[in-house]
């Protein structure tokens, strides 16, 4: 009886150990692209910041890559092997990281970016970003954190929205953001991307 209970405990511990080892190995893998502290990395593609990201948003995007609602061949391959438990563990880990913003965005139009972020552009039907993403850019639930995000990554997403997000027949959360991305001009995208890139 005692022996059986002991064996069960040992097994449970081994399983926990293996799961933790699995998580560590996965994190190392994510960080080869997304940066050692999840701050993002500028390689051949910009690798987005994951640090401080809302767990629900992160999980939703991983599902979107798997279901090809969001097209990216690299992330589709990375995501489709992750178990739901692993996805949750990764999301919690990244939420708790808080490195400084990657930086490097031009500073010339930060004031314009701040105005767009806080007040929107009423004449172009662009709502205030802060209304959804929060004044500090931290996001909530399925609305992403934008604070500290890489400048070129943000520009890429906003200017390519209709091509990479909300693909397939089902309407998903990307539809909430689609009209705003569509109504921003290139220079407005650059200004607001620079502004959020410096938010901590
Ligand atoms: C080989 C490089 C590479 C690896 C490894 C990698 N990623 Fe990515 N990841 C990318 C790229 C590139 C993008 C941007 C995709 C795009 O432009 O849509 C991305 C995007 C993402 C996004 C969307 C971020 C956002 O703000 O919308 C999430 C979430 C993500 N990766 C999580 C992970 C996790 C978790 C791991 C580890 C299990 C991982 N990635 C491993 C390259 C990588
Ligand atoms: C009505 C709410 C709402 C408003 C207003 C809004 N957003 Fe969003 N935004 C969202 C949601 C929801 C998502 C997640 C979309 C998805 O799931 O694909 C998002 C996603 C994004 C992303 C992608 C982030 C990433 O990591 O890939 C960027 C960039 C973005 N928004 C920028 C902005 C900017 C800039 C403004 C203001 C001009 C703005 N948003 C206004 C709701 C909003």
Automatic annotation (TrEMBL):
| Residues annotated for heme c 1 binding in this entry | 30, 33-34, 75
Q: What keywords sit in the KW lines?
A: Electron transport, Heme, Iron, Metal-binding, Periplasm, Transport
Question: What is a single Pfam family found in this protein's UniProt entry?
Answer: Cytochrom_C
Post-translational events: Binds 2 heme c groups covalently per subunit.
Q: Which Gene3D superfamilies match?
A: Cytochrome c-like domain (1.10.760.10)
Localization, UniProt: Periplasm
Q: Which PROSITE patterns match?
A: CYTC (PS51007)
* Coarse class of the protein's main subcellular location: periplasm
List the GO terms this entry assigns under cellular component, sorted alphabetically. periplasmic space
- Where along the chain is heme c 2 bound? 129, 132-133, 177
User: GO molecular function of the protein, one example?
Assistant: heme binding
Q: What is this protein called?
A: Cytochrome c
């Amino acid at each position: 009886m005692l022996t059986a209970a002991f064996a069960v405990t040992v097994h449970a511990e081994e399983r926990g150990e293996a799961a933790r080892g699995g998580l560590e190995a996965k994190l190392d893998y994510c960080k080869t692209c997304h940066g050692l502290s999840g701050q993002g990395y500028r390689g051949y593609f910009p690798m987005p910041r994951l640090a401080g990201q809302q767990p629900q948003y992160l999980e939703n995007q991983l599902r979107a890559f798997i279901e090809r609602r969001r097209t990216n061949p690299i992330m589709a391959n990375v995501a489709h092997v992750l178990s739901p438990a692993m996805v949750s563990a990764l999301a919690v880990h990244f939420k708790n990281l808080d490195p400084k913003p990657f930086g490097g965005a031009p500073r010339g139009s930060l004031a314009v970016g701040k105005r767009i972020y806080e007040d929107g552009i009423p004449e172009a039907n662009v709502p205030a970003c802060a209304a959804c993403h929060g004044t500090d850019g931290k996001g909530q639930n399925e609305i992403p954190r934008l604070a500290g995000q890489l400048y070129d990554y943000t520009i890429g997403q906003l200017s390519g929205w209709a091509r990479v997000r909300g693909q397939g027949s089902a309407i998903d959360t990307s539809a909430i953001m689609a009209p705003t991305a569509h109504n921003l001009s290139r220079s407005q995208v650059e200004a607001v991307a620079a502004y959020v890139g410096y938010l901590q």
